[in-house]
Each structure stands twice: as structure tokens, then as C-alpha cells.
Amino acid sequence: MNFKGLRVHRPESLAAVADLQRRFGDDAALLAGGTELLLLMRLGLTRFDHLISLRRLPGMADLSVSPSGDLILGGGVTHQQVADSPIVRQLNGVLAQAEGRLANLRVRASGTLAGNLAFADPHSDTLTLLSALGAWIESDGAGEHRRVPVTDLVTGLFTTVLEPGEIVTRIVIPARWLNASLAHERFESRRQRPMVTVSCAGHTDSSGRLDDVRLVVGSVCPHPLIVDTLAELLVGARPEEVEPATVVEAGTSAAGEIPVRDDEDGAADYKSNLVSVLVRRAVRDMLSSSATPRKDARMP
Amino acid sequence: VRQDGRVKIRGEATYVTDLEVAGLLASAILRSPHPHARIERIDVSRAEAMPGVVAVLTQGDLVRPGFEPYYGHIHRDRPVLADGVVRFAGEPVAAVAAIDEETAQAALLAIEVDYAPLPSAADVEVALQADAPHVQDVRRRPEIADDEGRPAHENVCHRYRYTSGDADDHFARAAVVVEGTYRFPSVYQYAMEPHATIAHWTATGVDIWSNCQHPFLVRAEIADMFGLPLGGVRIVVPYVGGGFGSKSYTRLEPLAVALAHKARRPVRVVNDIEGAMLTSRRHNMVCSMRTAADSEGRLLARQVRIRLDTGAYADNGPTVAESAGVAASGPYHWEALDMESLCVFTHRSPSGSYRGFGNGHLTWIGESQIDDIARRLGQDRLSIRVRNLVGRGDHLYPHLKPIDADLAGDLIAVASALGLDEPTGPYEGKGIGIGLGRGGAQTVSGALVRLDSEGNATVLVGSTEIGQGTRTVHAQIAAEVLELPLDKVTVLGTDTAFTPFDRSTGASRSTTIAGLAVQRAAQDVLEQLRAVAGEDQLTHAETVRRATGISAGELVGRGSVTSGDFEWSPAFWEVGAAGAHVAVDPDTGQVRLLKVVTLADVGRAINPQLVERQDEGCSAQAIGNTLFEELDFDETGVLLNASLLEYRVPTTQDVPDEAHCIIVENGDGPGPFGAKGCGEGVFGGLPAAIVNALADAGAVIDQLPATPERVWRALNQGRS
Description:
The structure holds 2 protein chains of 2 kinds.
Chain A: E1 7-9, H1 14-24, E2 28-31, H2 37-42, E3 50-53, E4 63-65, E5 71-74, H3 79-84, H4 86-91, H5 93-101, H6 105-110, H7 113-119, H8 125-132, E6 136-141, E7 144-149, H9 150-153, E8 154-156, E9 159-160, E10 167-173, H10 175-178, E11 181-188, E12 194-204, E13 210-218, E14 225-226, H11 229-234, H12 244-257, H13 268-291
Parallel strand pairs in A: 1-3, 2-3
Antiparallel strand pairs in A: 4-5, 5-10, 6-7, 6-10, 8-9, 11-12, 12-13, 13-14
Helix pairs in contact in A: 12-13
Chain B: H1 5-9, E1 26-31, E2 37-43, H2 45-48, E3 53-57, E4 70-71, E5 78-79, E6 85-86, E7 92-98, H3 101-108, E8 112-117, H4 124-127, E9 156-164, H5 167-173, E10 176-184, E11 196-201, E12 206-210, H6 215-225, E13 233-236, H7 253-263, E14 267-270, H8 273-279, E15 284-293, E16 299-311, H9 317-327, E17 336-345, H10 359-377, H11 381-388, H12 407-418, E18 428-439, E19 445-452, E20 457-461, H13 470-482, E21 489-491, H14 510-533, H15 540-548, E22 554-561, E23 572-584, E24 591-601, H16 608-627, E25 658-664, H17 682-696, H18 708-719
Parallel strand pairs in B: 12-13, 16-17, 20-21, 24-25
Antiparallel strand pairs in B: 1-7, 2-6, 2-8, 3-7, 4-5, 9-17, 10-15, 11-12, 11-14, 15-16, 18-23, 19-20, 19-22, 23-24
Helix pairs in contact in B: 9-10, 10-17, 13-14, 16-17
């Protein structure tokens, strides 16, 4: 379809959004970056006469650090803004770099992190990354304000716990994980989308031992999955002392935990192999940056 | 520098969809959801009654005296709109002309069609089974027989057969025989500008603006279909946003002409990307091949069975089957050949031309078998080829032109630039490949050069500028002959009302064949200038004024090339020699191209920069075909990835780390200044080089595209 006759509304308060939603009901959709919604409309897969842009709501452009050190990303913050942000680059260079590599410049410049989470396409780097970083979203809808961990947000393919009309107003990455060592691996399919994504975050205590790790595998399954077995293998260890065999075991056991199936991206055994390989690489990378925060030495 | 560079970069170049015609209507096409079905009922009355709708067309409207509503340049087998049966999912069933596109699109929803689905032959192997559903009425293609003279399967559209020597005997006593079954994917040509046509009936016939590659062939076909004299059909070709064969022959023109006829107003018909994918694609193929050699590495015999999927209509399939059959031998001496190439109808969207067809399908297969033989005999991959290559002046086939190039010299140059013998790192590999394509197509072209009284020249020649730079090269040829600065020469797009006949823009023929006509036309002007000026030192402008006797006026030179100018077919052999250095990630199968070497054996490089760009562009496409591009059809024949989101075309991220183009100028081409065509050969050599480099790295591939998953499996198989 073309977009003739389509009206875009730009309300400046949550109350105004609610008014518009009441007025237009199912004829209206919420618009963030539009990279998914406008595409679906163009392909004729869905149709709305009214789009309610969320860009002008208060706080949507917020990109700051809270007094307690948490990173606040307003609901309107785009991938490219995260990639370019001096704050993010200083606090977590891996996150900035990963956000700067996904899709293409047009998508990054327009697409928002919050919109990406709410759309819940599993083929998403952001969803996997934020799950590993222990992030949560804050939302408003029907007069209620709530916070939902990203790991609980997505329930399946393109489905979330968000209610109709509920708006993700911001994403919060807690200081503890923001400052942890993060590694991200992705493998792109022939269809130009991430087919496997793996994010691994490791937190070390004052003695230099790992006291917490989070490993998340996404894209290959309907929603990101946390792999708990890694903590059993690594917590208490010094990153530089972890045996290569342990890293290999981490990959193998993760592959055993992630359910995969044949689809147009590839056969199940190949995808399991990719999970194992990418987990291995992500864990190795996480360990190497945990051991040497200034990155002046590599793992043996 | 390209002559059209400035207008294109500034957005000032005019394409079909930029044109305005008074009263122009938009249109939309209703396509079949079924790969094979009988149309039980079609009712357009609700659509016709909608405000803003001017005409709704079905095939029934075209069944009238004077109209022959079928087209196809080899077999006239394709209805303008479905003729009671749909033969592929996406086949146009009805079309709407309306005041704007949205109205036309909305009207499609009001057309009622009842389909009775039928079983489909959705795959080239299924289509050849004894009980396979028939795609076409056999009467629409000539009777085809097998070796014993029995009728071939009804789904065989064309059969190429070539035998020489006693192949069975050589296979029986050869020291080494390699064999395999290989698969080539269906691929989309992806021209950035999809097909677009405007048709406008006038008092004398029909005017057409279309982004077609072969306007004169389209003119003849439209004239024939709509009962008009050739001169009653006028085709104007503005700038064209890429072709690669996707705009060869007749495409949307019959539908636009028919719709404009019914609407009694000019109509524009435009494809979107999905429509373009369903209009033309590259043939997917299954091929089994056996090659025999003696213990010294002398090639003895080759047997090939090629099955090309041409989809529901013949289009250019028979030519593709012939080219594949010819390319299957590779450029080598043989004691015996046993080749069969079948073009097969299936219930899939039609296949047509795509850059380097035939050569692109077959060369990687033959060349991987040569490498396999070298490996088994412990011989060097370069020297086994050099020993068996056909030399200059010798015949590859007795009925075709003797080889007109130094093939061994070309291949040695590639191997040396690649560093074939230098060691590689772990999970790296190098490979070379060489193939030949038939260049020039039919050698009929004309040109006019008009030199005006200010000393500026205008070239009228029927080649279509599809991005390859033909206008620039033709301007250079005229400028060279007339000793004019390049900016004094203008080359116009084709208008069949004024531009001399040119057979087509394809088969790398525009520089060589049309260029020869331009050179001759310019020489004709030059001779006229000399005759007028005599011994006097005059400028061109002064000479033209003296010749005409007035201050205005012009001299017109004519040049033509006819089939009689060439003793042999093809007009020239297009050499495709290439090398590749790859690195494979053993854990994921991801392939990285470290270095690619291509070779353009062009006789004379009229514009070396354009030669290099041709090789680079063709490399990108060849890399896509080899490593990741594929149109996916389901088991009934429905195209699954009909968008650029799901069908990946090569981008700047896919080009090799290092690319090197060797230009060979032996002055041995039949074109102007000894030139011969280029730009398609890479499709033979490069896939072969990449496949051989992958095998060198440990991954033996028999199915393209060589996706990471296939490479990973091949590596695992090699390791176990």
C-alpha cells in the first residue's frame, strides 16, 4: 500500500496519547521508529489510518546516568544514538559497538531500542544484549506505571506481556551490569538477519574473582534464553585461570540447553553448532576483558 | 569519465517513470496465487464500476480479429494475461487502468476469480517424471525427440544434443574418471530499476516508452501481436537503471499496449520488486557430469546431462540451454563428447537471460572436475589446464568460430597475479577457473553520425545504455575517428522512429558490433569531410558549411554491420578467466574472499576504466550467485522470498578484500580498433575459481550457493 490519507499524530503527554487511542481505537497504532511498523504496512500486512508518534512524550529522548549509576535510555532513543553516545561508549563500549553494527544505518538512525523490544522479533541483537545486561523496561498504560525485566518481557514470537496501549517509556540498565564485562556475538543468515545472537556478561568482585555471570542466547529461539549452567562453571574463578576446556564445555552445554529446529535459516544441527561456537567465543571474550580491564593483554 | 555520469549523479537523468504523458493512467496487475489452476470464473464488473477505474483487462478482451495475444521470441507460448489456465504463482490474470495507483490497487480487490487448483510440476526433476502434470499444450512448442527418435517428455521445451567420438570407449579405458551431480540455484538479476512501460495509442499506431534492452525486437513483436506495421510501433528508450538480461526481449510492453487500447488512454505499467522477480529470473539447474583423463593428465571424454528449469514459458530458455551445452565442454580438447542439455517447463515463474548465462551455469562444474583430476593424478592445476586448452586458431567445436584468444596466456597471467603456488594459511585455499561464452549474438547493427555546422557530432545507435557505459564508449569511438574532443560528441537513447536498427543489447555485443557500425558511420563522415576539404586546412565546422553552402546544415554518415561481415558464429569468444583466494571459518563455514583476480581479454580496451568496472560489477554478482543468492520456491512452486528483505543481493560488504582486474589487449577482436566485448566472462571464471579455492581449503562443493551451512558440512565431510 502507499501511505495516502494516513495521519500521524504527535501528542506531547501520556494523557493525550490515551485520548487519541480512545478516539481511534483499532484504527490507530503507536509509532516509535517505524522501522518495523511502516514496513508491515507497506507490505500490506497491516493497516492503520492513524499513527500516534511517541517521539514528543516527555523523557523519550532521555539518555543519561542516574545518581545510582544506572543507564537510562528514553523510549525514543535510537540505536545510532546509543552507538554514538559518549556516555555509553565510556560506560560500556561493547554495547555501543554492537548497537552501531546492527542492521544498516537507516534502520539504526530511525529504529528505537524500546520499539525493538516491544516488537519482540527474536532476530534482534538488542533483545539479547539487554537481557544479558539485566535491563528492565518501565512502562505506562491505563494510568499504571510498572517495570518489567527484559527477560520477562518477551513471551514468544512477536508477543510480549505489554497490554494494548501500554508504552515503554524507558529502558534502565542497572549499574552493576553496566560496568560488568560484556561480550556479544552474532551470526547473520542469508536473509540478512541475526540467526544466532549470544551475549555474555561477567561481574568480578574486589578480589578479581567472577561473582556473577549472565549468558543469554537469542534469535535462534522464539525469545532469548538465559543459560544458567555457565554460572556453575565460572562463579568463584579468576577469569585468567579458566581452562580452555571449561570454555568449550560452556559452549557444548549451552547448545544442549537451547531448543532449535529446522527452518529457512538452516538445519537444527547447524544452528546448535553455531550456538556452541558463538557461546565459546563470547565467553572467551568476556573472560579476556574481565581479566584485563584495560585490554592490554590477551587470554593465553 | 562517463558521459552520463553528471546527469545521473545530479538526478537529472530521465527514466520511464519520470515521464509525463497527457492523460496518463496508472495500473495494477492481479496475479495468480496458485502455481497451476484452471480459471473457472472471472468477474470484473464490480472493479469496472468503481470510481476512477477506466478499464479492466482480461485475456478475453484480446481475443479479437487482428490481435494475436501471445508472445515469446522463440516459442510464442505466453499469453498477455492467463488464458483460462494459470501456469505459475504470480502469473498476471487481470489488469486495471485507473486514475491513480491506489485506485487501481483497490480495484484488484474487487475482481472475483474462481480457481480450480491443479497438481503442479514445481521442480525440474519432478517435471520430467513420467506422470508429471504437463505445463503447456505440446502444440505450442515443436516436436522434440530423444536419441531413438521417440517424442521427448511433454515438459521438455528444448533439447540441445552434441556428440563426438566414442565417449563410452574412452570412459572404459581412462586412467581416471570423476563424476558428480551438481545443482545451481534460481537467481534474481536485480536491476535497481524494475520493469516500466508507458503505452500510448495514436492515430497511426502505438508509441511506447520502455526500459527494454532490445527495443527493435520488442517493436517487431508488438507489431505482430497487435496487427500493426513495424513503423506503426514506436519505442523510445530513456535511461535504464540496469538490465543484466532481466530486460531482454518483451516484458511488460504487450500488457501496457493492450491496457491502453482498452482504456483509450495512455497507460503506465510498472513492476515492483516482487513483480520483477516474477517476470524474469535465472534458470536453476541440475547437472550430472563425468570427465575422463589418461594417466598423463590428457583429457579424453566428457559426458554431461543438463536440466534447466525455464518455468512456465520458454522465454530465452532454449538459448540458455544451447549456451550451457556449449559451455559444458570447457575450453579444452576432447577425444569424445556426449552432451545433452534440456530446457524444461515447470510450474514456476519464467526464467530468462542473465549475464553470462550457460557459462555461469556450467563452468564451475567442469572446472571443479579438472581440479579433481589434477588432484587424483598429483598434477599441477595450472599445467594440466595449459596442456589441454584449445590454442588460438583451433576449433573447440567444428561448427563454431576457431578460438580467437590466447587462453593459456590468459590463465597463466591469472595464476601469477593470484600467486597460485604460494602457500596459504590454515583453512585458506586458492583456485583458478576458465570458461568461454559466445559473444555478439546476431551481428546486425546500424548507426548514423550527424556532424553539424558547429562541428558537433550526434550519434544515433540502437544500443541501450543500461549502466554498462555504451553511450560513453560509442562517443569515444566516434570522437576517435573524427578527431573530436569527447565533449563534442553526443550519443542519444533509442527512438525506433529515428534510430537505425540494432539487433539487441546483450551478449557483450554493444562495443563490438554496434560499435563497429558507429566506427563505420564516423568513417563515412570523415570521408565526406576529406572529399569536400580536399587539400585545404579546414575545421570540421568550416567543411560542413562549405559542403552545404549555407551556414547551417550537416553531414550524415552511415555505418552498418550485417551477418555477412562475419564468417563464423559466434562473432567472438568471451574469455572468462579468474582466480580466488578464500579463507573459511572452520567453526561456522563462513567464507571470506581475501583476493579475487579477473581477466578481461578485450582485444583493445577503448575505455579501460569501464572495462574494470564491468569486471567488478560482474564479480559482485558472481559472488552473490556463488555464495548466498537464491530464490526459494516451495514444493508447489510458490516463490517464498519475493522481497529484498528476504532475498539478499550482494552489497559493498560482500566484495573481496582485494580485487585485481587484468586487461589483456592483443588487438584480436572483430570490433572497432580490434576490440571485443567484456563484462560477462567473470560469471564463468569466478564461480569456478571460488569453488576450486573452497575445495583447496577442504570444502568440496557440489551445490550453489555455497552457504556457510553447506561449507561447514563439506568441511566436516572432508575431515571425517
